[in-house]
Design brief:
single chain; 135 residues; alpha+beta; 4 strands
């Protein structure tokens, strides 16, 4: 009985070591979505400051990812604003034996929300597009 269990275990061990390789390809799709819309920006008078301590998964995305997460968290914690106007980021980096590690990011700025969305007329669109080259 011991020999049977031994050989069954050995057979199971050998059978489970297979490599699966899958490949796929994608087809590029060209689609541009453009809309001529303007909106008013309601900026609050009070300046906010928020210190963000990133997790390891956020740090793996790089410094730009940590800054974006800090701004998003600051906006969420201070009234769910849409954008941070005149934002400044102060990054605290600690140098270790294996490289640098972002410990915290302090974000300051004025929270603002978009409101009063409206379509742009053709004259305003022409004024905005002056100086921009078309494809």
């Amino acid at each position: 009985m011991k020999k049977f269990v031994f050989f069954a275990g050995l057979l199971l061990l050998c059978a489970s070591c297979t490599t699966v390789k899958k490949t796929s390809s994608t087809q590029p799709v060209s689609s541009n979505i453009e809309a001529a819309v303007t909106a008013d920006l309601d900026v609050k008078n009070t300046k906010i400051s928020y210190t963000y301590y990133p997790t390891n998964s956020v740090r793996r995305g790089g410094e730009a990812n940590v800054k974006a997460a800090a701004i998003a968290e600051a906006l969420r914690m201070n009234g769910n604003a849409d954008v941070l106007v005149e934002s400044q980021q102060e990054v605290y980096v600690r140098q270790g034996l294996l490289g640098k590690k972002i410990k915290s990011v302090t974000v300051t700025g004025y929270p603002a929300t978009y409101k009063n969305f409206k379509s742009v007329d053709e004259e305003t669109l022409k004024k905005v597009m002056v100086g921009k080259c078309c494809k």
